[in-house]
Automatic annotation (TrEMBL):
Residues 180-248, 267-352 form the Hydroxymethylglutaryl-coenzyme A synthase C-terminal domain. NCBIfam families: HMG-CoA-S_prok. Gene3D superfamilies: 3.40.47.10. Residues 2-165 form the Hydroxymethylglutaryl-coenzyme A synthase N-terminal domain. GO terms for molecular function: hydroxymethylglutaryl-CoA synthase activity. Coiled coil: none annotated. InterPro entries: HMG_CoA_synt_C_dom (IPR013746), HMG_CoA_synth_N (IPR013528), HMG_CoA_synthase_prok (IPR011554), Thiolase-like (IPR016039). The active site is at E79 (proton donor/acceptor), C111 (acyl-thioester intermediate), H233 (proton donor/acceptor). Its EC number is 2.3.3.10. Keywords: Acyltransferase, Transferase. (3S)-3-hydroxy-3-methylglutaryl-CoA binds at Y143, K242, N275. This is Hydroxymethylglutaryl-CoA synthase.
Length: 389
């Protein structure tokens, strides 16, 4: 029985800041952002969007009435959780109108959470082939204004429906993974902003990729020639390229040209959205599937997932015969092109606008947010979500 990704949905907020203009305001050469880290635009989450609303908006795109009957597990990978106890998955379960006979949980391991969710979902479907699992990766990357990590912020969510006989990508059984205790990136309980040792994080990302790639080759006898493309978790688009270059000498010139061409295509969405943590790898996959029109069914796609702290995994899948019919072609490009640019000053003001931390109530104006699902405020320490339709 084949198990894998049956549908993919994506959402990012309706506003962004231009990285050239951010660089100028920060008194650095624009090429440091646009070429040095490979980012052109950075998605910004208004106060009316959080991890829950973004995930729900992404899921709305793919979950139909038939899916609602089959989904009996909702797994929410995030490091932008809204509650220390209650899972974000329960809110999404409610907002989507799923039936009550379903499990709903939240997973956390930095940017690896959604991948852990997929692996858990595969096991569930293997035992219950009639079931479908909704896996969510939703995050707001926040490092702070004028910090070293500011240029690698972003916001967005990816929703994946995992099922038997998937229509998009059948995932292999074999994968390779590694865990090590590394303080390259973390967010203390008292902080709403992440801390990062950028140099160490880059080094560990590359080292983890090399380690799991070697493991994977030993397990499967795979070579670069076996892959049409390899997609990466992308905190910024140059990061995956750095790791990739370390192994490209294992293949032929033809392998290098094919893989690097497809890598650039897989990074197109990330380049204009920014880092979305748990959803980043799957945004790369989506970018490849939607923007490479001649990608053929039967092609093998590798995936490298990395979550600081740290856990890494390499796995792969095979494109199915009708995969393009399952993609909302053109819709995501339309979403991205319809966004509104804000000035750096406006971005800074939006960044500083946060919910009360003293338990007071607040009502938010959702009229300016075009999303179907929004955060409308906080009352009695409970977030108030609205679905407009």
């Amino acid at each position: 029985m084949q198990i894998g990704i049956d549908k993919i949905g994506f959402y990012t907020p309706h506003i962004y800041v231009d990285m050239n203009k951010l660089a100028e305001r920060r008194n650095v050469e624009p090429e440091k952002f646009t070429i040095g880290i490979g980012q052109e635009k950075m998605a910004i989450a208004p106060i009316t969007q959080d991890a829950v609303t973004m995930a729900a908006n992404a899921a709305l795109e793919i979950v139909d009435e038939k899916d609602k009957e089959a989904i009996d597990f909702v797994i929410f990978g995030t490091e932008s959780g809204i509650d220390h106890s209650k899972s974000a998955a329960i809110y999404v379960h409610h907002l989507l109108g799923l039936h009550e006979n379903a499990r709903s949980i939240e997973l956390k391991q930095a940017c690896y959470g959604a991948t852990a969710g997929i692996q858990m979902a595969k096991s569930h479907v293997a035992l219950h082939p009639e079931s479908k699992v909704l896996v969510l990766g939703s995050d707001i990357a926040r490092y702070g204004l004028e910090t070293s990590g500011e240029a690698t912020q972003g916001a967005g969510a990816v929703a994946l429906l995992i099922s038997a006989d998937p229509d998009i990508l059948a995932l292999d059984h074999d994968s390779a993974f590694k865990t090590d205790e590394v303080m390259d990136f973390w967010r203390p309980i008292h902080s709403d902003k992440a801390l990062v040792d950028g140099k160490l994080s880059n080094e560990q990302y590359i080292a983890f990729f090399a380690n799991v790639w070697e493991q994977y080759k030993a397990k499967t006898d795979a070579t670069l020639a076996d892959f049409e493309a390899i997609t990466f978790h992308l905190p910024y688009t140059k990061m995956g390229k750095k790791a990739f270059k370390a192994v490209l000498d294992e293949g032929t010139d033809e392998d290098t040209e094919r893989l690097m061409t497809n890598y650039q295509i897989s990074a197109e969405y990330n380049r204009i959205v920014g880092n979305i943590y748990t959803g980043s790898l799957y945004l790369s996959l989506l970018s490849l599937l939607e923007n490479k029109e001649d990608l053929q069914p039967g092609a093998r796609i590798g995936l490298f997932s990395y979550g600081s702290g740290a856990v890494g995994e390499f796995f792969a899948g095979t494109l199915q015969s009708n995969y393009r019919k399952q993609l909302p072609l053109g819709k995501h490009n339309q979403l991205l092109e319809s966004r509104t640019e804000v000035s750096v000053s406006e971005y800074e003001a939006i960044f500083e606008e946060t919910l009360p931390t003293n338990g007071s109530d607040v009502t938010l104006d959702t009229a300016g947010d075009p999303a179907e699902i929004c955060l409308a405020g906080v009352k009695d320490d409970m977030r108030q979500y609205v679905r407009k339709g």
